[in-house]
Fold each of these.
Amino acid sequence: MGVTLAMLCRAALCVLLLGFARPGPACAEPTEAERMARWSDLQHAIFGDRVVEDAGDLVAIDAPARAEDAAIVPVAIRVAQALAPEIRGLYLVIDDNPSPLAAHFLIAPIADAREIATRVRIDDYTYLHAVAETADGRLYVAARFIKAAGGCSAPASKDQDLARERLGKMKLSIADRSRPEEPINVKLLISHPNSSGLQMDPVTRNYIPADFMQTLDVTYNGQPIFRLESDIAISEDPSFNFSLRPSDPTGPGVIKAEVLDSSQRHFSQSWPVPTAAQM
Amino acid sequence: MTIPRRAFAIVASLLLLVSASSRSETVPLAMTEVAAGVFVHNGVHEEASSANDDAIANIGFILGDDAVAVIDPGGSAREGRELRAAIRARTDRPIRYVILTHVHPDHIFGAAAFRDDHPDFVGHAKLPGALAQRGDYYLHRLRSTLGDEASGTEIVPPTVLITGRLDLDLGSRRLILWAHGPAHTDNDMTIFDENTRTFWLGDLLFVDRVPVIDGSLVGWLEQLREATAIPADRAVPGHGPVSVPWPAGADPERRYLEAVARDTRAAIKSGIGIANAYRQVANSERGHWLLFDEYHPRNVTASYKELEWE
């Protein structure tokens, strides 16, 4: 196959989305002022009249400036050490996606909010905004511009049989725990198409129905670490990196993940966390 | 015998029409006869564009005593028509089969040019599913790249589906078709011509142009192991020269895929994220391949996503 994603996805998407997502001329690049106005609208829609302060160095988004594959763009939200213990919510907004609020993490006290990472679909050159919410209701926003396009309608599932067989299965890996005073770093993979509803079946001329993860609850010994409320912007086979600081860092524990998707399917899986000495 | 004047006039004007349209549109594709009766058109090593009509893959046909089999009708209706003209410049035998080696548009979007021949369109059992998922997306992309040059290009679904193996008889010539497990895509087919021991691999084999991993990296290495056992004298790659010796012609591809697998596993193990992994994967391969920077990073992303489940 021989067409660059960057160039062609964009054009294809305009055709796909023109009908229902984007008024005005096809593919006209928004001006900086229009982008600012869009964020202002989104901020109002999500946070109402609450004050949203510029995060300065307190919050940052880590993402490639130009994505190699717009359907799998890794994004990490970082929070400064000083602020991290106060964080109770993290919002990830992809301004120019059809459904901009990509993720809302509800962060529990045992989570280490210094970094949480996932992979998202990005539909068009866009700003990403990360908003961190503290226990006492302050909001801090950080922004990052990213060049990627076509991620929402790009065909996924390279191996369709494998995707069906593996639906709902999860994989959890825990990084080396040689130092019990350090947080436990966890990587969680969930096998799920997380279909965007923007991929079309040419035979029926219908869009393939969206089928995505709505909530993900992750607990440690029954205590919440975080809950994610999510949407079609999370990539196929959702992936999360997060950390936690259990109250008893040397004791044994169990991490459990539970998923509820938009087809009302429920998946859950548990993993023992070895004590630092066992690793 | 006298021909009624009116009938003569009609025939003459029809002939004029046909020759006029063929002059203005359909120039037969340049073909190389890589073995007796096996004709290959050499695709250019470029991205699809309106200048090349998406004629970027190796495509062609095989002549039997009774019939013709097309192997990949090309990247656009226009390229399909030019391939058909190249066949008709050599034979009037019926075009009985159009073999669609896999879902990618540069190989199969020329199929509409052969509809009036009423051939069997032969594809992997998983090709219809892949077309349902991706066909329309590919068509939009092609139209936006090629513009008017894409006109007439349509999705033609396969009419004969194969799992395992299927033999086709072209008249004193047997072709053996295999449907493979996930490799380059999840719907790859290869064709073996017994008479000349020519093995047509489609995109299971890339030479010179960097392979595109759009199925399964691990699966591809497996399928390649099996394919190298086929006793062929030469292979036709989906991209690269029209013919390479077999199995030696697969060595560079295997080396690339093994390097990607080894280095991606190492990156996952050492906790390097999916965004940065490509910087440290298979760097030794840079310089060996055309379009490396266009496709290699996405190959690594795809491989990472596959291998992180191991």
Amino acid sequence: MIGPSRVAELDMPGAAIETTTSRPAQSYWNESWERLRHNPIGMAAGVLILIFGVVAILAPLFSAVLTHFQPQSVDLLATFKPPGGAHMLGTDELGRDTLTRLIWGGRVTLGVAFLTVGIALSAGTAVGMAAGYYGGWADDALMRFVDMVLAIPAIFLFILMSILIHPTPVTLALIIASVGWGNVARLVRGEVLSVKQRDFIMATRSIGARDVRVMIRHLLPNVLPVLIVAASLGVGQIILIEAALDFLGLGIQPPTASWGNMLTNAESYFYHSAWLVYFPGVMIFVTVLCSNIFGNAVRDAFDPRLKS
Amino acid sequence: MLAKYMARRFLASIVVVLGVTAITLALMKTTSGSYVPGIDLNPSLRPEDIARLRADLGLDRPGWQWYITWIWGVLHGDFGHSMIDGSTVTSHILDRLPNTIELTLTAIVIGVIIAIPVGVIGALRHGSKTDHTMTVVSVAGFAVPQFWMGLILILIFSVTLEQHGLPWLPSSGAYSAVNGGDFFDRVEHLILPATVLSFFYISTWSRFIRSSMLEVLSQDYIRTARAKGMSERRVVYLHGLRNALIPLITLIGLELPGLVSGGLVVEVVFGWPGIGKLAFERALQYDYTTVMGVTFFATLLVIAGNLLADVLYGVLDPRIRYG
Amino acid sequence: MSRDEDAADPGFAQFERFLEAWSRRDFLRRAGGAAAFMAFSGGIVEFLQACAGGGGSNNNTAGTPKKGGHVVEGNFTDIRTFNSMLSSDTASNQCIGLMFDGLTNQKKDGTIVPAVAESWKTSSDGLTYTFKLRSGLKWSDGQALTSDDVKFTYALAYDPAYKDFASPRRGDLSKYIKSIDTPDAQTVIITTTQVFAPFLASHGNYGILPKHVLGSMDAKALNTADFNNGPTVSNGAFKFVSWQKGQQVTMARNDNYWAGAPYLDQWIYKVLPDSVAVTNQLKTGEIDIGPIDPGQFDSLTGTSTVARSEFPVPSFNFYAYQLDPSKPAGPLFQDKAVRQALIYALDRNAMNQAIYFGHATAADSVEPPTSWAYKAKPQVLYNFDKAKAESMLDAAGWTKGSDGIRAKGGLKLKFTMITNAGNKQRESTLTYMQQAWSAIGVSATPSLIQFPQLVSQIVDIRTFDMFLVGFNWSVDPDESPLFHSRNTAPGGFNGAFFKNDQVDSILDQALVTLDQNKRKQLYYQFQDIMSDQVPAPILNFAHGIWGVNTRVQGTDFGPFNQYGLRPWNHNVWVTDGK
């Protein structure tokens, strides 16, 4: 988060999960799933995100069948058309179809969000697990490095990197993830530290299991709930970060559409074409909201004590 | 033990500061090309002029040399002059810092004042309609892009109110352009940006307080207290809230590093002359000295914030040992 | 340094916002329009009168001027320096213009008028300029302003003793100034090294600096002198009070001003976040004066307290083809027919309507319509004609392949167009060009880069295929910086690598010709050739639009009176005296 990012870390009581078996028992996962399934709001939020995701993936299909416009097709004679008619959600300042751009913009926005989460989680998990598992100087070195990454004011990193690397969806995901992985690493390390002292890990290690095997077979499953919660909450946060970067001119560059740059772009036309502001704004709002609700629901599902 | 721990932390901090500033400089050096900050290239500028001005700023030297000179200056308390306007970097930071602190502190105070009751009520009545509503609202508050909220507030509370002849709020700056700067004038200018910024805090903290309250309330000592026949109110406020608030203090400590970049978007939207906006603008203009100075300062804040958080954890939880 | 008025730089052209590029408006996309605004150029010959809303910001009519009160002027960038010999950005020049007068000033039509100098004459060989200063000139601290101050000011940028002084004007001044003599306190004689027609217009209006304050400092100390951040004395209509960085500059009436004390007590320059904020604050009255983005023009229509004035300004937006055959895209544009065909495929009138909201004029010439050398109809005109574009490409041997993209000899007509991120009009322009050209089988991909990188591309690296940018010009019609082959050298603005012997010789000749009619003929010829060669087609001339609160009287914005140069500053007054 561009803002106070570490809140999420503290806010994640995944660390409190107590398990005594070698990894969370199958029943733990089943029970969690059951709890999630019976949280209608949480499920609805999850399903909605899923729908947005599917629409985004099928964007070419939608623009061929539903809207009959391409996101870049300019029509200077049909600018600022209000919603209705051939343009269901109206057109923008270049006569581009708003609905089409929302769908394609969602592809970019959601793509960046999921990709970022994926990169940050993988990198963070790898580093955090290694640091926590090996301890000693490796831990020290890795965590000091994490400190350093987290100590760079994110905004500088974003500005400088977006100049150095031309921001495309993929590079933008890398840029955002380059800041985000540090928190994940800390989170994972903490979790690993608490798990590795348990008897079963000691036992596994003493019979000579390879480190990688211990990590993947025994540590990872214990860390997984924390990661899942972090991922579901992360998507929303990253959409907001991406929108903020778009606003600052450091995010997705036009003419590629993203919800953030559509919103930023529309702001100057608020007085006469308010719909241009409403639609992308609503999409961001709803998606982030769903991500947060779903993330909370997942957390509650994994950590029933808070729910009881 | 603590002394040794602190010494180690201190050494590590030095490494971090050196590392961060070096990375920042390296990134700027790599991306700047032949650009000379502060000089607007214009057609009457001859290549030899540019070379001379680059040399004056020390930009013709390799990055590491420039870095050593810079560090040397810093060790002597000299952060150099801005490459854009020639003022000292220190004066820039000192000019902007009070504004940023004013904004952030106000937002934090608003955040705490609203988040605590919201969180506590949510926890006490958890599962109720009130709880659900508050949860949804706080989650929703977190889902609105800050810049968008800022712009909408400006439209409503500045422009629209003014157009209807109603009392309205100023839309940019920290005080009025003419005869501004007195207490009420500043408060008036603070309202909109502080509101936007505090939304973030309210949303996260109220959820945090709610869950830590829930956790505390389920602890044995609370049950014991209840069993002893202590009044519910005393249980909640004396034991519950107090214990739930302690982590919140840590959380607020962690906002310290956010001083520089946390309010950036709000500062940009409201033209608030703060340090985040300074850093942002100067980074875009490749004002090396200012960016390095602010980075240095921001890194110190992050380290201080982390240290503070760790120490607080230690104080609050005696099981944690420094070693 | 906008050449337009801040002028002064002989270089004339000002790379648009090179200068001011750094302004945040060039970076924040939301400010987009803003950037455009400045970069924007004026175009139509007709002078559009101030629009609805009454008053007209350019009127002097309502009643007798009153003393007292203040004006708050808003813009998007903070200033950088108050030292006229260091400044090269519009914002700084704007405040410098309020506080420091130069030898001369300019009216809105570009006519040079007396300021500190009450008269001047040019020697018959065109090499010597003799300025006669007004009598009784005083600095705001009461000290006399003499020819020594003038000499000192110019010495900062040409005298080798000050070579470490970081003046962006040194290049030109040291090239053209041979010596400055001050036979008496009121006479300044500048001797130049060669005839240079634009000298007076370009170099006559730098704000004069006080020798009695700065004279004792060496060049290095001057670079970081406190004076640069807070001038203790001034000689213009206003004097410095305070500068809250990132927020505002406050200036107060200078009672020692040569034209008499101004009516206003205070003039405040306020830094705003972006062009939308300028519009909002014009509405709320938080600012009295501000530049209006074309996209925001209509939102002020219902606001009775704001009068808008719109006029052509001496600048244009253009794109340039990569003409260096050694560069990847170079071979694509060697053929004149390709360059011409691509312009025919653009509906520039529709672009102006949609992208500039009608506040721009399609361009046929490379000289802006505000210039005395403007030729409205040069040899070749490019009216939108898609069929013609296609047939020209066919005839030139560029035929469509199976992928729909034209190719010739295995070379595809496929390239990337760059411009700076954050300028909405330019982004939109590229988006439209992409579509318009793809319709004739040309694949052009827009790419937005940060301004420093764009600058490097144009003057230095030059690996671009095509770039889009704007240029501001001064009163003088010389366009050598952009089109003379000497400026293809690294650091020059002829990044497109346009080399044409005939153009070179015309431009050179025009610079040393003092007779304006002869110069005009040369520039007519120049415009004809350029309309045929089109190395860098001009897309449009945009307009300057200023919003002024109706309580403010006496402003007179125009093509050459926008930012730094405003000979009417001291005449501004407010009807309510507040």
